[in-house]
Hints:
The structure is a single chain. The protein is an alpha+beta fold and 429 residues long. It is 34% helix and 23% strand. The strands form four sheets. It has a five-stranded mixed beta sheet with strand order 5-6-7-2-12, with helices on both faces. Strands 8-14-13-11 form a four-stranded mixed beta sheet, covered by helices on one side. A hairpin with a 2-residue loop joins strand 13 and strand 14 (394-403). Helix 6 crosses helix 11 (405-427). The model has no long low-confidence stretch (mean pLDDT 95).
Amino acid sequence: MEKSKKKLPAEMWDKMQYLFRNYYDRTMHAVYRYAERVDVDALKTAYMAVLKKIDVLHSTFVKNPISPYWVVNEDYTSDDFFTFVETDSPEDALERFITREVSPFGKVQFRAALIRSGSSDIWAVICNHMCFDGSDLRYFNMKVAESYTKLIKTGDPDVDIKDGTRSAEQVYSGMSEEDRRHAKSLYKNVSAVENKIVFPFGEDDETLRPRLILKKLAAEDFLKMKARGKSMGATVNDVIVAAYFRALFAFVETDGRALTVPCMYDLRRYTGGASEGLTNMIGFMPCTLDSVGADMAKTVEKVKAALRPAKEDRFTGLYSLPLLKLAYTLFPHFLAEFAIKLGYTNPYIGMSNIGLINPAEFVLDGAAPYDAFYSGAIKFKPYMQLALTTFKNEITFSIGVRVTDTEQKLFESFLDKVTEELIEFGDQK
Protein backbone atom coordinates (compact mmCIF):
# COMPACT_ATOMS: atom_id res chain seq x y z
CA MET A 1 0.00 0.00 0.00
CA GLU A 2 1.19 3.51 -0.78
CA LYS A 3 2.16 5.37 2.39
CA SER A 4 0.53 8.53 1.09
CA LYS A 5 -2.91 6.98 0.98
CA LYS A 6 -5.44 8.03 3.60
CA LYS A 7 -6.23 5.45 6.27
CA LEU A 8 -9.35 4.90 8.36
CA PRO A 9 -9.42 2.99 11.63
CA ALA A 10 -11.40 -0.25 11.58
CA GLU A 11 -14.16 0.42 14.09
CA MET A 12 -15.44 -2.19 16.54
CA TRP A 13 -18.31 -3.37 14.36
CA ASP A 14 -16.11 -3.41 11.24
CA LYS A 15 -13.91 -5.91 13.07
CA MET A 16 -16.87 -7.90 14.40
CA GLN A 17 -18.39 -8.18 10.93
CA TYR A 18 -15.01 -9.38 9.67
CA LEU A 19 -15.01 -12.03 12.41
CA PHE A 20 -18.47 -13.07 11.20
CA ARG A 21 -16.83 -14.29 7.94
CA ASN A 22 -16.89 -17.66 9.70
CA TYR A 23 -20.70 -17.67 9.69
CA TYR A 24 -21.88 -15.79 6.60
CA ASP A 25 -20.73 -13.86 3.53
CA ARG A 26 -21.14 -10.40 5.17
CA THR A 27 -22.95 -9.11 2.07
CA MET A 28 -26.23 -7.16 2.24
CA HIS A 29 -28.69 -6.94 -0.64
CA ALA A 30 -31.18 -4.37 -1.92
CA VAL A 31 -33.48 -4.61 -4.95
CA TYR A 32 -35.79 -2.00 -6.51
CA ARG A 33 -38.04 -2.58 -9.51
CA TYR A 34 -39.12 0.20 -11.89
CA ALA A 35 -41.72 0.14 -14.66
CA GLU A 36 -39.68 2.80 -16.49
CA ARG A 37 -36.16 2.85 -17.85
CA VAL A 38 -33.42 4.46 -15.77
CA ASP A 39 -30.75 6.65 -17.38
CA VAL A 40 -27.66 4.47 -17.10
CA ASP A 41 -25.08 7.24 -17.47
CA ALA A 42 -26.90 9.47 -14.98
CA LEU A 43 -27.03 6.67 -12.42
CA LYS A 44 -23.27 6.06 -12.79
CA THR A 45 -22.59 9.78 -12.42
CA ALA A 46 -24.77 9.92 -9.30
CA TYR A 47 -22.88 7.01 -7.80
CA MET A 48 -19.54 8.67 -8.40
CA ALA A 49 -20.78 11.91 -6.80
CA VAL A 50 -22.04 10.13 -3.68
CA LEU A 51 -19.21 7.63 -3.42
CA LYS A 52 -16.49 10.28 -3.21
CA LYS A 53 -18.07 11.49 0.06
CA ILE A 54 -18.13 8.05 1.73
CA ASP A 55 -14.49 7.04 2.20
CA VAL A 56 -15.11 3.59 3.63
CA LEU A 57 -16.95 2.51 0.46
CA HIS A 58 -13.92 3.12 -1.73
CA SER A 59 -11.44 1.59 0.69
CA THR A 60 -9.59 -1.71 1.03
CA PHE A 61 -9.58 -3.56 4.34
CA VAL A 62 -6.14 -4.39 5.72
CA LYS A 63 -6.24 -7.28 8.20
CA ASN A 64 -3.29 -6.10 10.24
CA PRO A 65 -2.86 -8.62 13.11
CA ILE A 66 -2.35 -5.85 15.64
CA SER A 67 -4.82 -3.17 14.54
CA PRO A 68 -6.77 -3.55 11.25
CA TYR A 69 -7.55 -0.48 9.16
CA TRP A 70 -8.93 0.71 5.84
CA VAL A 71 -6.84 2.23 3.06
CA VAL A 72 -8.83 4.78 1.07
CA ASN A 73 -8.59 4.42 -2.71
CA GLU A 74 -8.99 7.34 -5.11
CA ASP A 75 -8.19 5.52 -8.36
CA TYR A 76 -11.61 3.92 -8.83
CA THR A 77 -14.09 4.33 -11.69
CA SER A 78 -17.68 3.25 -12.19
CA ASP A 79 -16.34 0.11 -13.90
CA ASP A 80 -15.14 -1.05 -10.49
CA PHE A 81 -18.67 -1.27 -9.11
CA PHE A 82 -21.34 -0.75 -11.79
CA THR A 83 -22.85 -3.29 -14.19
CA PHE A 84 -25.50 -2.75 -16.87
CA VAL A 85 -27.28 -5.82 -18.24
CA GLU A 86 -29.93 -5.95 -20.95
CA THR A 87 -31.61 -9.34 -21.06
CA ASP A 88 -34.78 -11.32 -21.75
CA SER A 89 -34.20 -13.20 -18.47
CA PRO A 90 -33.97 -10.44 -15.85
CA GLU A 91 -34.72 -12.71 -12.88
CA ASP A 92 -31.85 -15.04 -13.80
CA ALA A 93 -29.52 -12.06 -14.16
CA LEU A 94 -30.70 -10.69 -10.83
CA GLU A 95 -30.10 -13.98 -9.05
CA ARG A 96 -26.57 -14.25 -10.45
CA PHE A 97 -25.77 -10.72 -9.32
CA ILE A 98 -27.49 -10.64 -5.96
CA THR A 99 -25.90 -13.86 -4.66
CA ARG A 100 -22.34 -12.64 -5.20
CA GLU A 101 -20.07 -11.82 -2.28
CA VAL A 102 -18.34 -8.45 -1.83
CA SER A 103 -14.74 -8.95 -0.73
CA PRO A 104 -13.36 -6.56 1.90
CA PHE A 105 -10.03 -6.69 0.09
CA GLY A 106 -11.34 -5.13 -3.11
CA LYS A 107 -11.04 -1.53 -4.26
CA VAL A 108 -14.69 -0.70 -3.52
CA GLN A 109 -17.01 -2.24 -0.94
CA PHE A 110 -20.23 -2.52 -2.93
CA ARG A 111 -21.55 -3.41 -6.37
CA ALA A 112 -24.56 -2.01 -8.23
CA ALA A 113 -26.38 -3.37 -11.25
CA LEU A 114 -29.07 -2.04 -13.56
CA ILE A 115 -30.83 -4.98 -15.19
CA ARG A 116 -33.04 -4.05 -18.14
CA SER A 117 -35.76 -6.07 -19.80
CA GLY A 118 -37.85 -4.23 -22.37
CA SER A 119 -39.05 -0.95 -20.89
CA SER A 120 -38.53 -1.86 -17.22
CA ASP A 121 -35.42 -1.86 -15.02
CA ILE A 122 -34.23 -3.55 -11.84
CA TRP A 123 -31.78 -1.60 -9.68
CA ALA A 124 -29.84 -3.97 -7.41
CA VAL A 125 -27.13 -3.29 -4.84
CA ILE A 126 -24.88 -5.57 -2.79
CA CYS A 127 -22.68 -4.13 -0.04
CA ASN A 128 -20.09 -5.28 2.49
CA HIS A 129 -21.74 -5.39 5.92
CA MET A 130 -18.43 -4.32 7.48
CA CYS A 131 -19.06 -0.80 6.18
CA PHE A 132 -22.54 -0.34 7.62
CA ASP A 133 -25.85 -2.09 8.31
CA GLY A 134 -29.21 -2.18 6.56
CA SER A 135 -30.32 1.18 7.94
CA ASP A 136 -27.35 3.00 6.45
CA LEU A 137 -27.48 0.93 3.24
CA ARG A 138 -30.98 2.38 2.83
CA TYR A 139 -29.52 5.86 3.49
CA PHE A 140 -26.79 5.31 0.90
CA ASN A 141 -29.27 4.14 -1.75
CA MET A 142 -31.56 7.05 -0.93
CA LYS A 143 -28.71 9.52 -1.46
CA VAL A 144 -27.88 7.95 -4.83
CA ALA A 145 -31.52 8.39 -5.88
CA GLU A 146 -31.45 12.00 -4.66
CA SER A 147 -28.24 12.69 -6.58
CA TYR A 148 -29.64 11.08 -9.75
CA THR A 149 -32.78 13.22 -9.64
CA LYS A 150 -30.83 16.41 -8.94
CA LEU A 151 -28.48 15.66 -11.81
CA ILE A 152 -31.34 15.15 -14.28
CA LYS A 153 -33.13 18.32 -13.14
CA THR A 154 -30.19 20.70 -12.63
CA GLY A 155 -27.10 19.09 -14.13
CA ASP A 156 -25.47 19.01 -10.67
CA PRO A 157 -25.30 15.63 -8.84
CA ASP A 158 -23.91 17.02 -5.56
CA VAL A 159 -25.91 16.17 -2.41
CA ASP A 160 -25.17 16.41 1.30
CA ILE A 161 -23.92 13.21 2.96
CA LYS A 162 -23.50 12.71 6.70
CA ASP A 163 -19.82 12.35 7.53
CA GLY A 164 -19.63 12.04 11.30
CA THR A 165 -17.96 9.35 13.37
CA ARG A 166 -18.38 5.65 12.57
CA SER A 167 -17.40 4.68 16.12
CA ALA A 168 -19.63 2.46 18.25
CA GLU A 169 -19.07 4.92 21.10
CA GLN A 170 -21.63 7.30 19.58
CA VAL A 171 -24.39 5.06 20.92
CA TYR A 172 -23.77 6.56 24.37
CA SER A 173 -23.54 10.19 23.23
CA GLY A 174 -27.10 11.19 24.03
CA MET A 175 -27.25 9.60 27.48
CA SER A 176 -27.02 11.22 30.85
CA GLU A 177 -23.74 10.68 32.68
CA GLU A 178 -25.41 8.17 35.02
CA ASP A 179 -26.96 6.16 32.17
CA ARG A 180 -23.70 6.25 30.23
CA ARG A 181 -21.77 4.80 33.15
CA HIS A 182 -24.37 2.09 33.61
CA ALA A 183 -24.55 1.22 29.90
CA LYS A 184 -20.77 0.90 29.72
CA SER A 185 -20.86 -1.63 32.57
CA LEU A 186 -23.24 -4.07 30.82
CA TYR A 187 -20.78 -6.93 30.40
CA LYS A 188 -23.45 -9.64 30.17
CA ASN A 189 -22.83 -11.98 27.22
CA VAL A 190 -26.22 -12.00 25.49
CA SER A 191 -24.96 -14.36 22.79
CA ALA A 192 -24.76 -17.22 25.29
CA VAL A 193 -27.84 -19.44 25.07
CA GLU A 194 -28.48 -22.60 27.04
CA ASN A 195 -29.94 -24.66 24.22
CA LYS A 196 -28.06 -24.66 20.92
CA ILE A 197 -30.84 -25.78 18.58
CA VAL A 198 -30.22 -25.81 14.84
CA PHE A 199 -32.47 -25.82 11.78
CA PRO A 200 -32.72 -29.31 10.17
CA PHE A 201 -30.45 -28.84 7.15
CA GLY A 202 -30.02 -31.86 4.88
CA GLU A 203 -26.92 -33.71 3.76
CA ASP A 204 -24.30 -32.16 1.49
CA ASP A 205 -24.96 -34.76 -1.21
CA GLU A 206 -25.74 -32.11 -3.83
CA THR A 207 -24.09 -28.91 -5.00
CA LEU A 208 -24.14 -26.12 -2.45
CA ARG A 209 -24.68 -22.63 -3.79
CA PRO A 210 -25.68 -19.27 -2.30
CA ARG A 211 -29.38 -18.49 -2.57
CA LEU A 212 -31.88 -15.86 -1.51
CA ILE A 213 -35.15 -17.62 -0.84
CA LEU A 214 -38.08 -15.19 -0.95
CA LYS A 215 -41.75 -15.20 0.00
CA LYS A 216 -44.23 -12.33 -0.03
CA LEU A 217 -47.15 -11.58 2.27
CA ALA A 218 -49.73 -9.63 0.27
CA ALA A 219 -50.79 -6.16 1.41
CA GLU A 220 -54.35 -7.30 2.11
CA ASP A 221 -53.11 -10.07 4.41
CA PHE A 222 -50.60 -7.75 6.07
CA LEU A 223 -53.27 -5.16 6.92
CA LYS A 224 -55.58 -7.79 8.40
CA MET A 225 -52.74 -9.29 10.43
CA LYS A 226 -51.68 -5.84 11.64
CA ALA A 227 -55.24 -4.92 12.68
CA ARG A 228 -55.74 -8.19 14.54
CA GLY A 229 -52.45 -7.74 16.35
CA LYS A 230 -53.30 -4.16 17.29
CA SER A 231 -56.59 -5.33 18.80
CA MET A 232 -54.52 -7.57 21.08
CA GLY A 233 -52.01 -4.87 21.99
CA ALA A 234 -49.33 -6.54 19.85
CA THR A 235 -46.97 -4.89 17.40
CA VAL A 236 -46.46 -6.16 13.85
CA ASN A 237 -43.07 -7.43 14.99
CA ASP A 238 -44.65 -9.36 17.89
CA VAL A 239 -46.99 -11.12 15.47
CA ILE A 240 -44.23 -11.96 12.99
CA VAL A 241 -42.02 -13.33 15.77
CA ALA A 242 -44.95 -15.50 16.88
CA ALA A 243 -45.45 -16.86 13.34
CA TYR A 244 -41.71 -17.50 13.07
CA PHE A 245 -41.72 -19.46 16.34
CA ARG A 246 -44.71 -21.52 15.22
CA ALA A 247 -42.93 -22.41 12.00
CA LEU A 248 -39.70 -23.20 13.86
CA PHE A 249 -41.39 -25.47 16.38
CA ALA A 250 -43.05 -27.28 13.43
CA PHE A 251 -39.74 -27.84 11.61
CA VAL A 252 -37.10 -28.07 14.36
CA GLU A 253 -36.59 -30.90 16.86
CA THR A 254 -36.37 -29.20 20.24
CA ASP A 255 -36.76 -32.34 22.41
CA GLY A 256 -38.73 -30.27 24.90
CA ARG A 257 -36.04 -27.61 25.19
CA ALA A 258 -36.69 -23.87 25.02
CA LEU A 259 -35.85 -22.12 21.75
CA THR A 260 -34.17 -18.70 21.67
CA VAL A 261 -34.37 -16.40 18.64
CA PRO A 262 -32.16 -13.29 18.81
CA CYS A 263 -33.91 -10.41 17.03
CA MET A 264 -31.68 -7.70 15.58
CA TYR A 265 -32.14 -4.41 17.44
CA ASP A 266 -31.32 -1.04 15.87
CA LEU A 267 -29.29 0.96 18.41
CA ARG A 268 -30.04 4.23 16.60
CA ARG A 269 -32.96 4.60 18.98
CA TYR A 270 -30.31 5.73 21.49
CA THR A 271 -28.98 8.40 19.10
CA GLY A 272 -32.20 10.03 17.99
CA GLY A 273 -32.84 7.61 15.12
CA ALA A 274 -29.69 8.13 13.05
CA SER A 275 -25.96 7.46 13.17
CA GLU A 276 -23.46 10.31 12.82
CA GLY A 277 -21.60 8.53 10.03
CA LEU A 278 -22.39 5.47 7.92
CA THR A 279 -21.75 2.52 10.22
CA ASN A 280 -23.16 -0.53 12.00
CA MET A 281 -25.32 0.08 15.07
CA ILE A 282 -27.02 -3.21 15.79
CA GLY A 283 -27.55 -5.19 18.98
CA PHE A 284 -29.50 -8.30 20.02
CA MET A 285 -32.93 -8.62 21.63
CA PRO A 286 -33.32 -12.34 22.41
CA CYS A 287 -36.77 -13.93 22.63
CA THR A 288 -37.13 -17.34 24.31
CA LEU A 289 -40.18 -19.65 24.25
CA ASP A 290 -40.39 -23.12 25.75
CA SER A 291 -43.35 -23.92 23.49
CA VAL A 292 -45.92 -22.26 21.27
CA GLY A 293 -49.56 -21.73 22.14
CA ALA A 294 -52.48 -23.75 20.83
CA ASP A 295 -53.00 -21.17 18.09
CA MET A 296 -51.43 -17.96 16.78
CA ALA A 297 -53.32 -15.72 19.19
CA LYS A 298 -52.01 -17.63 22.20
CA THR A 299 -48.52 -17.66 20.72
CA VAL A 300 -48.67 -13.89 20.24
CA GLU A 301 -49.50 -13.54 23.93
CA LYS A 302 -46.51 -15.72 24.82
CA VAL A 303 -44.22 -13.60 22.63
CA LYS A 304 -45.55 -10.38 24.19
CA ALA A 305 -44.81 -11.76 27.66
CA ALA A 306 -41.36 -13.00 26.63
CA LEU A 307 -40.38 -9.65 25.09
CA ARG A 308 -41.92 -7.42 27.78
CA PRO A 309 -38.77 -7.30 29.97
CA ALA A 310 -36.62 -6.29 26.99
CA LYS A 311 -39.10 -3.64 25.87
CA GLU A 312 -39.17 -2.19 29.37
CA ASP A 313 -35.37 -2.26 29.71
CA ARG A 314 -33.83 1.17 28.99
CA PHE A 315 -30.63 -0.54 27.83
CA THR A 316 -31.91 -3.28 25.51
CA GLY A 317 -29.41 -4.09 22.78
CA LEU A 318 -26.45 -2.54 24.63
CA TYR A 319 -25.45 -5.68 26.53
CA SER A 320 -22.11 -7.21 25.48
CA LEU A 321 -20.87 -4.04 23.76
CA PRO A 322 -18.52 -3.29 26.71
CA LEU A 323 -17.20 -6.87 26.48
CA LEU A 324 -16.34 -6.43 22.82
CA LYS A 325 -14.69 -3.08 23.43
CA LEU A 326 -12.67 -4.58 26.28
CA ALA A 327 -11.39 -7.41 24.08
CA TYR A 328 -10.37 -5.08 21.26
CA THR A 329 -8.78 -2.65 23.74
CA LEU A 330 -6.78 -5.17 25.75
CA PHE A 331 -5.53 -7.43 22.98
CA PRO A 332 -4.01 -7.12 19.52
CA HIS A 333 -6.58 -7.98 16.87
CA PHE A 334 -5.57 -11.61 16.31
CA LEU A 335 -5.83 -12.35 20.04
CA ALA A 336 -9.05 -10.35 20.39
CA GLU A 337 -10.65 -12.49 17.69
CA PHE A 338 -9.52 -15.62 19.53
CA ALA A 339 -10.88 -14.34 22.86
CA ILE A 340 -14.21 -13.29 21.36
CA LYS A 341 -14.65 -16.64 19.62
CA LEU A 342 -14.21 -18.37 22.98
CA GLY A 343 -17.13 -16.44 24.50
CA TYR A 344 -19.29 -15.50 21.52
CA THR A 345 -21.97 -17.86 20.24
CA ASN A 346 -23.25 -16.92 16.81
CA PRO A 347 -27.03 -17.52 16.70
CA TYR A 348 -27.93 -20.69 14.82
CA ILE A 349 -31.37 -19.21 14.21
CA GLY A 350 -32.01 -15.45 14.05
CA MET A 351 -34.39 -12.80 12.81
CA SER A 352 -33.95 -9.30 11.42
CA ASN A 353 -36.82 -6.93 10.70
CA ILE A 354 -34.92 -4.52 8.45
CA GLY A 355 -37.93 -2.23 8.38
CA LEU A 356 -39.98 -0.07 6.07
CA ILE A 357 -38.92 0.88 2.54
CA ASN A 358 -40.56 4.16 1.54
CA PRO A 359 -40.91 4.33 -2.27
CA ALA A 360 -40.78 8.14 -2.15
CA GLU A 361 -37.15 7.94 -0.98
CA PHE A 362 -36.06 6.02 -4.08
CA VAL A 363 -37.74 8.01 -6.83
CA LEU A 364 -35.43 8.38 -9.83
CA ASP A 365 -36.50 11.62 -11.56
CA GLY A 366 -40.19 10.91 -11.09
CA ALA A 367 -39.99 7.13 -11.47
CA ALA A 368 -40.94 5.41 -8.22
CA PRO A 369 -40.21 1.73 -7.60
CA TYR A 370 -43.27 -0.51 -7.72
CA ASP A 371 -41.56 -3.20 -5.65
CA ALA A 372 -38.50 -3.38 -3.40
CA PHE A 373 -36.87 -5.52 -0.71
CA TYR A 374 -33.70 -5.79 1.37
CA SER A 375 -32.05 -8.94 2.66
CA GLY A 376 -29.26 -9.69 5.06
CA ALA A 377 -26.15 -11.77 4.46
CA ILE A 378 -26.11 -15.31 3.08
CA LYS A 379 -25.48 -17.71 5.95
CA PHE A 380 -23.33 -20.83 5.99
CA LYS A 381 -24.60 -24.08 7.49
CA PRO A 382 -25.77 -24.58 10.20
CA TYR A 383 -26.78 -20.91 10.53
CA MET A 384 -29.97 -19.33 9.20
CA GLN A 385 -31.84 -16.06 9.63
CA LEU A 386 -35.25 -14.78 8.62
CA ALA A 387 -35.10 -11.21 7.33
CA LEU A 388 -37.99 -9.02 6.23
CA THR A 389 -38.81 -5.63 4.79
CA THR A 390 -42.16 -3.92 4.25
CA PHE A 391 -42.98 -2.03 1.05
CA LYS A 392 -46.44 -0.59 0.34
CA ASN A 393 -47.91 -2.80 3.09
CA GLU A 394 -46.43 -5.91 1.48
CA ILE A 395 -43.83 -7.93 3.37
CA THR A 396 -40.95 -9.66 1.61
CA PHE A 397 -39.50 -12.44 3.75
CA SER A 398 -36.04 -13.68 2.83
CA ILE A 399 -33.67 -16.37 3.99
CA GLY A 400 -30.14 -16.18 2.61
CA VAL A 401 -28.37 -19.55 2.82
CA ARG A 402 -25.74 -21.58 0.99
CA VAL A 403 -27.61 -24.83 0.45
CA THR A 404 -28.57 -27.61 -1.99
CA ASP A 405 -31.61 -27.71 -4.29
CA THR A 406 -33.33 -30.08 -1.85
CA GLU A 407 -32.67 -27.76 1.08
CA GLN A 408 -33.99 -24.81 -0.91
CA LYS A 409 -37.34 -26.63 -1.17
CA LEU A 410 -37.24 -27.15 2.61
CA PHE A 411 -36.75 -23.42 3.21
CA GLU A 412 -39.48 -22.58 0.71
CA SER A 413 -41.86 -24.81 2.69
CA PHE A 414 -40.71 -23.11 5.88
CA LEU A 415 -41.53 -19.63 4.52
CA ASP A 416 -44.89 -20.98 3.33
CA LYS A 417 -45.59 -22.00 6.93
CA VAL A 418 -44.64 -18.53 8.28
CA THR A 419 -46.97 -16.74 5.87
CA GLU A 420 -49.79 -19.27 6.38
CA GLU A 421 -49.69 -18.56 10.12
CA LEU A 422 -49.92 -14.82 9.48
CA ILE A 423 -52.77 -15.16 6.99
CA GLU A 424 -54.79 -17.42 9.29
CA PHE A 425 -54.20 -15.07 12.20
CA GLY A 426 -55.46 -12.11 10.19
CA ASP A 427 -58.53 -14.03 9.02
CA GLN A 428 -59.58 -14.98 12.54
CA LYS A 429 -62.19 -12.83 14.29
